[in-house]
Write a structure and sequence with these properties.
Layout lengths: L2 E6 L5 H10 L7 E8 L2 E8 L2 H4 L2 H6 L4 E7 L15 E3 L5 E9 L2 H10 L10 H16 L7 H14 L2 E9 L3 E6 L8 E7 L2 E7 L2 H6 L3 E5 L4 E6 L4 E5 L11 H6 L5 E2 L2 E2 H19 L7 E4 L5 H11 L2 E2 L3 E3 L12 H11 E3 L8 E6 L6 H12 L4 E6 L27 H8 L3 E4 L2 H9 L11 H4 L9 H12 L20
Helix pairs in contact: 4-5, 5-6, 9-10, 9-14, 11-12
């Protein structure tokens, strides 16, 4: 999962891009990058780390120009520890292009082969974003009919990207001297919203992963970018848009509503906050139906994402709602920290239990999801250490039993607590007296109750149905083998043997 921003303005955009990344920091803490465009020249700064650590005053001063794109990264493909994997990426042929991407391509290895053998393009990292950039560059080269680039050429190139690339991708790109481009995969798995503002010099535009970044920077949300659609803002401020996919299908990732998006965002016409309230209502009804025998004294959320669901659940069941954990705001989100040991260590640094809310009580803890179970196990033990008599654990989403291959870091089944385990076995594994999961049908109904126009979701991590149609058992096994080291990772440039040592 990543966060992306793109702005074309009549004023310098470096501060706006920085502020936009701060608002999207929850979507990735591994690396951050900004590119600005001054005329036809790009200025780039990117590095590993959080936004506040990556950019210094001297870096910001060098990011001149009235157009730019920015990215915060949480790694799902490529190396998590290499600055070379930070985005945006750059190519200089056939035009100078910089690109940032949220999502994950599922046919990266095949595209690497095509780029090297057929398109004669070199990819220097293991990042699928660099692959996507080179596919766009090649399609743009084929699309240009004359010496001057046109909006029609750009849309033709994006159509070529849709034909070749599979998976999830929301993209922002700058074309040197030409303008700002944004587009979304034909299934609309990852979010992308466009905003605008009228100024004395004319309209200005912004695109971002979430509406909260648009509104907080003073832009008005215009609409979501449609699945398969491309939006182009030229350097003269002209806005063009076109559907570039054949038979697009609106199938957003339901996990965005459960966990990733900020509650104050509206995504694809759906309030994240209201969706989470509805999740709590449906979960309350399941408890009333199937777990009425549990003697619950108090409902306590795991901060922060689960608060709306826990609050509404408690209200529906007539139970006390209390804040039992105090969160350290200076520790990152544990779910997206690479490595089990790091996640486990960070939980107690991140949360501290207040004994007065636990001592002698039967406690229902509510979280948005249970993925690997490491965090849940630690939190349950904290509740017991604080004096809880019984600890029940409720998840606002169903059991995560399958890998997500569309941009969420849960690619191996062995890492998923619910894979191959019953609810009773899961409860024993994490030390809970009972585990209560939301039903998938109820989760879908909760989100659709806020926006009935969404008829289908990508819920692959819950039901194992991969909507792009190219993910099978062989794909998942290969991905897991590459992750655990039993299979070699695909080379950045296949079948290429270069001796980069200096010759004498």
């Amino acid at each position: 999962m990543c966060g992306i921003v793109g702005i074309l303005s009549s004023q310098p955009v470096n501060q706006l891009l920085y502020d936009g990344l701060q608002l999207l920091q929850h979507r990735g803490q591994d690396a951050a990058g900004i590119v600005t465009m001054d005329g036809s020249m790009f200025h780039l700064h990117k590095q590993l780390g959080m936004v506040r650590d990556v950019f210094r005053t001297r870096d910001m001063r060098n990011l001149v120009g009235n157009a730019g794109i920015a990215h915060v990264r949480y790694p799902t493909a490529g190396s998590a520890s290499s600055p070379a994997e930070a985005q945006p990426f750059y190519v200089n042929s056939p035009f100078g292009i910089v690109l940032a991407h949220n999502g994950n391509l599922t046919n990266t290895e095949a595209l690497q082969q095509e780029l090297f053998l057929d398109d004669l393009r070199h990819v220097n990292t293991g990042s699928d974003s660099e692959v996507l950039l080179n596919v766009l560059a090649h399609e743009l080269q084929d699309a240009v009919q004359g010496h001057r680039l046109t909006a029609k050429d750009v849309f033709t190139a994006v159509s070529g990207v849709h034909r070749r690339c599979k998976g999830a991708y929301a993209v922002v790109a700058l074309i040197a001297g030409f303008g700002l481009l944004a587009f979304r995969d034909p299934n609309g798995i990852r979010p992308l919203v466009i905003g605008g503002v009228d100024t004395e010099t004319g309209p200005e535009y912004m695109v971002a992963s979430e509406s909260v970044a648009v509104e907080a920077l003073g832009y008005q949300v215009l609409r979501d970018v449609a699945p398969g659609e491309a939006v182009l803002v030229t350097s003269r401020g002209e806005l063009h848009s076109q559907q570039c996919a054949i038979n697009p299908s609106f199938t957003p990732c339901i996990f965005e509503y459960v966990y990733f998006a900020r509650p104050d965002s509206v995504m694809d016409g759906t309030s994240i906050y209201e969706s989470r309230l509805r999740m709590g209502e449906y979960l309350a009804e399941k408890i009333r139906r199937e777990y009425a025998h549990l003697k619950i004294d108090v409902v306590i959320p795991i901060p922060d994402t689960s608060r709306p669901s826990a609050m509404q659940l408690a209200f529906r069941l007539g139970l006390n709602y209390r804040e039992g954990f105090i969160k350290n705001r200076y520790i990152g989100r544990t779910f997206i920290m690479p490595g089990q040991a790091v996640r486990k260590k960070s939980v107690r640094q991140k949360l501290n239990a207040m004994p007065m809310e636990f001592k002698g009580k039967n406690v229902l803890l509510v979280d948005d999801s249970i993925v690997r179970g490491t965090t849940s196990k630690e939190i349950i033990q904290m509740a017991r250490d604080a004096g809880a008599t019984a600890v029940y654990f409720a998840s606002a989403s169903p059991p995560v039993r399958y890998p997500n291959v569309y941009g969420i870091d849960m690619p191996t089944r062995r890492e998923l607590l619910a894979n191959g385990r019953s609810d009773e076995e899961i409860a024993r594994e994490i030390g809970a007296d009972a585990v209560i999961y939301q039903d998938l049908s109820d989760l879908i109904a909760a989100v659709r109750s806020v926006n009935p126009s969404i008829t289908r979701f990508d819920a692959s991590c819950f039901d194992g149905c991969y909507i792009t149609g190219d993910v099978d058992e062989a794909y998942l096994s290969r991905l897991e083998g590459q992750r655990d080291g039993s299979l070699p990772a695909a080379p950045a440039t296949p079948q290429m043997d270069l001796n980069l040592a200096s010759s004498e």
